[in-house]
Specification:
Elements lengths: L2 E3 L10 E3 L6 E3 L4 E4 L4 E4 L2 E5 L3 E4 L3 E4 L14 E4 L6 E8 L14 E5 L4 E4 L3 E3 L4 E3 L3 E4 L3 E5 L1 E7 L6 E3 L2 E2 L2 H4 L8 E10 L11 E8 L3 E7 L6 E7 L6 E2 L4 E2 L3 E5 L17 E2 L5 E2 L13 H12 L18 H11 L9
Parallel strand pairs: 1-5, 17-26
Antiparallel strand pairs: 2-3, 4-7, 5-6, 6-10, 8-9, 9-16, 10-14, 10-15, 11-12, 11-16, 13-14, 17-22, 18-19, 20-21, 20-23, 23-24, 23-25, 27-28
Helix pairs in contact: 2-3
């Protein structure tokens, strides 16, 4: 594998200037910097290794000690920033850091954190080498790069089923895949997972929040800021047309935490009026469906929206599609009607 060090004394290209202070690339507008596949470009203390030919145009790369895009994740005092988002990048990034840049974070837990011009993306598959002071990302696919740094995370491995999407034998519909919104054959839908400390329950926003994909076997992996470690939180599961469910009690968050809502009714917080979840075939429990407008309950207002969408033969990714079959119809309305008759509402601590 060929490695090129980006240094002022070794490389001069028309339209490309290199900073002596930080040894960073600057590509002027209308000029391309082409990196051949599998060539390692050592820019300052970051190696860029594209798996396919990669072109940087009209963008500069600088090093800073603070991020431009705000984040709840802690990060080291070394941040690489492109002035414009890059073209789609396929390959790996390796960041070298100094011990004085750790900001008190545990070195052995460091992972790559990058911004794709939309949001910050933690990379749990990072290869960490605390001996050589490096973090190397997994192979990124078709990713725009805006900022790159290193952080540490708390990983939550969650299991939950959605009532309407549930089929049988511990499986749900793969709605996102069926709609061609994902190439993952197991992708059911996106969920939002919130962590709430007991002291924060009266506030409008959770302590930490993360979104991820719920797979057809009920599994989802969520990454939270490392600041959440070694404290206890209620786990709240939110889905676009389900009644939000909360863990029965605060859960201590470790580097990896497992929580399963599917095997026991006691795993979910209850209000003493209705069972906290719906019992499905195979003795599995699922989160109630039907809260289309996300007001916390299932009622006539959800039914009205479903009826309106059904009258228009709505098809696709609609909140009124409560069973995930891609269309809003009588089956969704029956589900809403059944749950509305129970006067279901979110049970929360």
């Amino acid at each position: 594998m060929k490695k090129i060090a980006v240094i002022v004394t070794c490389m001069f290209l028309a339209g490309i200037s290199l900073s002596l202070q930080a040894q960073i690339i600057s590509v002027t507008s209308g000029t391309d910097f082409n990196i051949v596949a599998n060539t390692v470009i050592a820019a300052d203390s970051m190696d860029i290794t594209p798996a396919s030919d990669f072109t940087i145009n009209g963008s500069s790369l600088v090093r800073s000690n603070v991020v431009n895009n705000s984040t709840s994740f802690p990060y080291i005092n070394r941040v690489y920033q492109f002035s414009q988002p890059t073209n789609a990048f396929n390959g790996a990034l390796k960041v070298y850091y100094n011990n004085g840049e750790l900001n008190g974070m545990p070195e052995a837990a460091l992972k790559t954190l990058y911004h794709n011009n939309i949001s910050w993306q933690p990379d749990p598959e990072t290869v960490n080498n605390s001996t050589n002071n490096t973090v190397e990302s997994s192979v990124l696919n078709a990713t725009a790069l805006k900022e790159i740094t290193a952080s540490y995370f708390a990983k939550l491995q969650l299991k939950a089923f959605l009532e309407g999407f549930y089929l049988s034998s511990g499986l749900m519909r793969s709605t996102l895949y069926d709609l061609e919104a994902s190439t993952d054959i197991t992708a059911t839908d996106s969920v939002e997972i919130n962590l709430w400390s007991t002291a924060n329950l009266s506030n409008p926003s959770p302590n930490y929040s993360s979104k991820g994909i719920l797979h057809n076997d009920g599994n989802a992996t969520l990454l939270f800021s490392g600041f959440a470690l070694d404290s206890s939180y209620y786990i709240q599961v939110k889905h676009r047309n389900s009644v939000a469910v909360w863990s029965a009690s605060p859960i201590s968050v470790a580097s990896t935490t497992d929580y399963d809502f599917t095997n026991s009714l006691a795993s979910a917080y209850g209000d003493g009026v209705n069972p906290s979840m719906k019992l499905k075939s195979g003795g599995k429990y699922a989160i109630y469906s039907g809260d289309i407008n996300q007001d916390g309950g299932v009622d006539i207002f959800d039914m009205q929206q479903a009826e309106n969408d059904a009258s228009k033969f709505s098809y696709g990714y609609n909140s009124s599609d409560c069973n995930g079959d891609k269309s809003t119809d009588i089956f969704d309305m029956q589900l809403i009607e059944n749950n509305a008759s129970l006067f279901l509402y979110t049970a929360k601590p």
